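Quick one: co-fold with S-adenosylmethionine.
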Amino acid sequence: MPQALHAEFVNRMTRQVGSDWPALEQSLDGKSPVSIRANPAKQYQGSGISVPWCSTGYYLSERPNFTLDPALHAGGYYVQEASSMLLEQVIRAAVDLDKPLTVLDLCAAPGGKSTHLISLLSAHSVLVSNEVVRSRTTILQENLIKWGQPNSIITHADPARFGAVPGLFDVVLIDAPCSGEGLFRKDDNARQEWSPEHVHHCSLRQRRILADAWGALREGGVLIYSTCTWSPDENEENLHWFAQEHPLSFVDWTAPPAWSVEKIEHKEVRGYRCYTHKVEGEGFFISAMIKHEAAPRSGTDRTPTRHVSKKKELHDWIHYPCEHIIFEQDEFCWLRSVQTAGLAERLREHMPVVSAGTLLAEAKGPKLVPAHALAVSTVLRPEAFPVIELTLDDALAYLRKDTLPHPGTGNGYHLATFHGLPLGWVHVLSNRLNNLYPTEWRIRMDIRRL
Ligand code: SAM
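Sure, here it is.
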């Protein structure tokens, strides 16, 4: 039995949605729809009913055991609830995505919006995915590596740190920590934690994050703010408060009526809300604002030339149509677009940069060991390594890091694939095959007992 809804939540929602409350309340006891977003750069063919507001989103008729699908581990798709995919419409309404953009996803873990954003951006853009909680940067990095795009930087900083890079970003997304009312049907913790005090605490924290992020946005840049809650204090009231303090205008967009997305017109604020009794997805709020305030532009044009690698082999492994540099840092070799390299240098002066670009290889003496990130990256040149296509059973054994039979091929690094999607490396030796799947990502489920 789910935790009963807090009486004060019921009171507020009854005032907020009026006669819709019984339908909304009923929806909170129902089942959550299951949806995925396909990775267009990996040509993963999603199937199912399309999510109307997302070009790569699909509803599944039931929840499969995702852990047992190798395509998920290959970054073929991301499991994401559908309402959050509305980001695609809002950013398209606000920004020309064909231009090279510098984008910050300020509250990024586990990476749902970052993987979506990076698929929408052009190859010359750069996405900085920041996460303040150190332990959560691990899953963020795993998801971004699997997604396979090279124009990505991960930072680990408190939002206030971004005050040191004024006017640096064209777009800042704040997917703010919130009271999670929109997740009540799938997250019992959110129900348990809810209280008027918690909503107030979240609202104050969101105000702090908004104020901290603002300086990093350039004049004319776009701030996108989203939450998975319905509380006006955390959404339109917060944005009204913010608009009183700063010169900005709201991006006015209207969803097709068939989507049943509610448009909020609250004072100067324009926002969009998904209710669970109307939309096939969880509860969600999103709004976009254009900054009309001068911001000193910090340059990103400090492309480093030190540590540039001369290892020809590395250049043969990749196909990357953007101007790029391969760097050596200690024994590691990294690929970065010129824009990514310049931005990473700039950020490194002010905050910890967890990773920038794609790790290509580790040098072990004179030998290069290809990195897992290269195997699942969209820059890997397909002809660069021999391929071993695995059956489903062998793919799952590979992902569990079990021993695989010798393939009877020549020695050397081979790319293990499933349905053509790269999963990782195996190293074939004359008498055995080494499974190089990252130990920390291995499937721990005992598949034989299923
Ligand atoms: N954008 C993510 C996605 O789509 O997968 C979900 C982000 S979640 C709603 C909010 C994130 O904000 C969490 O990762 C949380 O660790 C982080 N967070 C918590 N407190 C924060 C703070 N004071 N400043 C910035 N981020 C914070």
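If it helps, The longest strand covers residues 217-227.
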